[in-house]
């Protein structure tokens, strides 16, 4: 339960990247990145997408064009040489002329295939992106309602419920320590700032607090599916006691 008349305590998880935790501390902010929510649910789909043979159509069309040219070229070559008598000097120049003509056709075909391959490459990339769009739409439409409820709740809490002077705990899970901060500004949005577009400014303490000093069972509170967690009960009181002893 969020309390209206006293400071609440929140755990904000930066995600899997230590760089993001470092960014929070250096910039004096916390942020929610919707991409962290979404990518957790696309692991299997992206692995399946990676293994698909997306270039099949390109190779199929290239093969068809090559076979068609090969049939035409062989016929023209046969027509060009079968009527000539190579023992007659006068016909040799005509043979050379025909061979040069066929050679030009080979070069033209090579250039045409290069252009066609480039076009098919762009088409292949377009199809891949359309496949991913459809995958995202399908996945979002079939997500467990409980997951959507959690996302909506965390976004609502981050934007509207968290208040000035609330206490924030940033765990560095790889090291088993946490940094403690205080909310100094309300939610803001800045377009084009990537991971930090949705943010709140924080005053961070320099103290590195071990998980064991925060409260018993703190590690168990770090639900891997949640990025913003409201701390309640005795753990809240314990963290507030620790926060009162660190320097901001």
Walk me through this protein's architecture.
The chain is an alpha+beta fold. It folds into 2 domains: 9-41 and 145-243, Roll (ph1033 like fold), CATH 3.10.590; 45-141. Helices cover 54% and strands 14% of the residues. Strands 1, 2, 3, 4, 5, 6, 7 and 8 form an 8-stranded mixed beta sheet that branches. Helix 4 runs antiparallel to helix 5. The longest helix is centred in the middle third of the chain and has 53 residues, at 89-141. It is rod-shaped and about 110 Å long. The mean pLDDT is 79.
Unreliable residue stretches? none
Q: How would you sum up the global shape?
A: rod-shaped
Number of domains in the coordinates? 2
Measured as a percent range, the helix fraction is: 40-55%
One letter per element, helices H and strands E, the order comes to EHEHHHHHEEEEEHEH
Tell me the name of the CATH class of the largest domain: Alpha Beta
Could you say what the CATH topology of the largest domain is called? ph1033 like fold
- Evaluate the radius of gyration: 33 Å
Number of helices: 8
Counting DSSP E segments of at least 2 residues, the number of strands comes to 8
Which CATH architecture of the largest domain is right? Roll
Distance between the termini: 27 Å
Question: What value does the average pLDDT take?
Answer: 79
Strand % is 5-15%
Please give the largest β-sheet: 8 strands, mixed
